[in-house]
Structure formats: C-alpha cells, structure tokens
C-alpha cells in the first residue's frame, strides 16, 4: 500500500483501548528494539526508538482526550501558525522574519515559513537563553552575590 504523507489529525475515538495502549507504552523502556509490531498475519518488525517514542506520545495525548496532528517536517506554516508554535504574537514573529532571523518565502501576498526552520529557531533560542542564564550565574558567583545571604530577613526602614 503506497500512501502520500500529508498532514493528518487524529481524534480520540476509543478511550478504553487508548488507556490500555498508553499503559503498555509507558511501561516499556524507550530504546532501540524496545518493541515489536506484529501484523495479523504474524509478520513482525522491530520499531526504531523514534517510532516507539512517537507512538508513546500519540497514545498519551489521545488518552487525555486531545487530538494529534501528524505533519511531515517539510510542511510550511503561516506566520500565525509559526507564531503560535513559538509562543509569541504574529507581529513579533513577522519582525523576526523581516530581520532575517528565520528564512521565509512569499509565494503570493502572504509569507510562509518551513516548519524545520521554525523548530531550528526555537532550539537556537532555547540554547541562547540557557547560555545567557549560565553566564549570569557565573558572573553573580564571581561577584560573590550568592555569598551574602542574610541570617535574618531584611526589614524595611521607614
């Protein structure tokens, strides 16, 4: 069976079965060769770790009554969709595009961004924030700001 991969949304339709699948997948270790998929005819295939983790996350979301959308990574997003994914407003996201922070295309009047570029930007920003916090901690420790912890709470002077 040949199937073209397009975006597809799955809805929770069998809560009892989903709860059972969730329990099963949550108890199995996440490692290569952790699970085997067996067809009705008895044919079996070992699931790679990324497929197993994907199944685990889908089962978790569906068992909580949430819908799940599966989309190939080359999917393009509107500026609104990308902004929501990054947790920011659309105007702020557009400013990032115009500043050259994230590549985009404009096939018509509207900008489009690739999902892979948005996810890469999100990871870059996370790494940047982590590095900034580490540097701030290092500077604070170097200045001895963590050494001056008062024994008694500070009192307000009137």
């Amino acid at each position: 069976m040949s199937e073209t991969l397009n975006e597809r949304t799955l809805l929770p339709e069998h809560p009892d079965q989903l709860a059972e699948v969730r329990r099963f997948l949550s108890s199995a270790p996440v490692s290569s060769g952790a699970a085997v998929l067996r067809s009705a005819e008895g044919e079996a295939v070992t699931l790679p770790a990324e497929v197993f983790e994907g199944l685990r996350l889908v089962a978790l979301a569906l068992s909580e009554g949430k819908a799940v959308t599966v989309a190939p990574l080359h999917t393009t997003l509107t500026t609104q969709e990308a902004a929501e994914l990054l947790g920011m407003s659309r105007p702020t996201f557009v400013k990032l595009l115009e500043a050259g922070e994230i590549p985009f295309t404009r096939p018509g009047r509207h900008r489009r961004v690739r999902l892979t570029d948005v996810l890469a930007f999100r990871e870059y920003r996370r790494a940047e924030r982590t590095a900034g916090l580490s540097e701030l901690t290092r500077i604070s420790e170097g200045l001895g700001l963590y050494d001056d912890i008062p024994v008694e709470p500070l009192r307000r002077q009137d």
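The helical segments are 15-27, 49-63, 79-86, 90-98, 115-142. Residues 8-70 form one domain.
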